[in-house]
Every structure is written in C-alpha cells, then in structure tokens.
Amino acid sequence: MPPKIGLFGGTFDPVHKGHLSIAHSYLDSDFVDKLWVLLTPYPPHKQLSQASYEIRLKMLNAAFEGVNRVSVSTIENSLPKPSYSVQTIRHLKQEHPDTEFFYCMGEDSLSKFHTWKYYREILEECELLVAKRPGVTHDEVEEVILDHSYFVEHTPLDISSSEIRGRVSAGESIEDLVPDKVLEIIEKEQLYS
Ligand code: ATP
Predict the structure, then answer these.
(1) Between 20 and 30 A from 21 (CA), which of 28, 66, 114, 183?
(2) Strands (DSSP E) along the chain, which ranges?
(3) Integer angstrom CA distances of residue 142 from 102, 131, 160
(4) 46: number of Cβ within 10 Å
(5) pTM for the full model?
(6) CA of 107 to the centre of ligand 1 (A)
C-alpha cells in the first residue's frame, strides 16, 4: 500500500487550537497515515500575513512539537511565490512518486475552492479531505469539486486566526484559543497588538 499523506496548508497567523483539532481529525480518519503541515509564505487568496514567516514557523513548530505523525513543512518557501497549491502538490508528487496525497482543508475553504487558481488542476492531481467548520455549508459547491471530496468527522471549534488577531489588538485574552507555547511567542514578540 502506498503511504497516504494529508497536506494541510495555511497561513497560520497564528496557528490555533482549531488547527490542532482539525489535524487530529484528519489523522483519526482512515484516509491518511501522516499529515504534513505546509506553511504558506505568500497566500495567493489572502492579504499578506501580519506576523513574519519566521515567527509563524516558530509558532507552528511549537504547536505541533511532539504531535505524532505530523510534520511541519517549509517546502512552499523554496518554491516560486505566490504559493499556488497546485504547484506544491505537483512538486511533492514528483519528489515522492509512491505516495498518495490528499489536500486537506476546512469546510470554509471548500466553499471558496472554486476561486482558487488552477482548482480543476488540483483535482486532477489529488483528492480533497474536508473537515467541518461552524457556520459553513457546502450546498453551493460545484459537482466536480464534491466528486473529488472526502469528508472527515470533526467536532468543530469556533476559532479563527482573524478572531485571535482582533482580540489581541483589542487587548482581550486569547488564552483559551492557542496552545501555551504559542501564547508565549505572541506575548514575547508583541504580535498583533
Ligand atoms: P484567518 O482567520 O486569518 O482566515 P484561519 O483561522 O482560517 O485564518 P488559516 O491558516 O487560513 O486559518 O487556515 C488553514 C486551514 O485551516 C484552512 O483550510 C482552514 O479552513 C482551516 N481551519 C482554520 N480554522 C479552523 C477551524 N476552527 N475549524 C476547521 N478548520 C479550520
């Protein structure tokens, strides 16, 4: 059986408990053996991140340190920018020809997936693994996308990086939303204030 790897990309500005919980849900499904968390330096469909790439990487490593079967990958930093997922997937497939890749995303990303550049090409390269997210449905998602989507059981946590950034800038606590080590980095580096 070829190894099955889930690719979980994001800006992680900052990584939060919702990301950790979704990562566990992918791993608890039988679809993937391992998860590679891909830190995106320049997301094509979002505004530039607030925290630098290096600090986001530091937070990501701290959050996933010691979590079994998860690796943090910096591959997108060495590929041309912006970081189109199709490019990353093709590169990884070339480097690991015997591996079956799944592209993992939250349900909110699925409902916007048709706006991603080269989304049809992504579907030609791999299947999607989708975890539920509060307040989002996939009723409007194109048939061709749903044909390539697998859904994983997930008890969603209503947390987002934007909420965290907003709370910090309003001087509110984010203690429950991020792992302790990530909180330490946010405070030490005075991020998002
Ligand atoms: P922002 O609020 O800045 O848009 P975010 O919280 O969505 O950020 P990203 O780094 O953009 O975080 O997300 C990476 C991936 O994690 C995306 O596929 C997104 O759908 C998923 N994700 C983020 N938070 C959750 C959550 N609470 N539950 C399920 N999926 C999530």
Answers:
(1) 114
(2) 4-10, 34-39, 70-73, 100-106, 127-131, 149-152
(3) 19, 17, 25
(4) 13
(5) 0.94
(6) 9
CA 180 to chain centre: 20
Q: How many angstroms separate the Cα of 5 from the Cα of each of 27, 107, 110?
A: 10, 19, 19
Closest ligand 1 atom number to CA of residue 18? 27
Residue 165 Cβ inside 6 Å of ligand 1? The answer reads no
**pLDDT tens-digit series, residues 11-39:** 999 999 999 999 999 999 989 999 999 99
Q: Ligand 1 center to residue 106 CA distance, Å? A: 6
What six digits make up the tokens of 118?
């080269």
Strand residues in 22-172 grouped as ranges (E)? 34-39, 70-73, 100-106, 127-131, 149-152
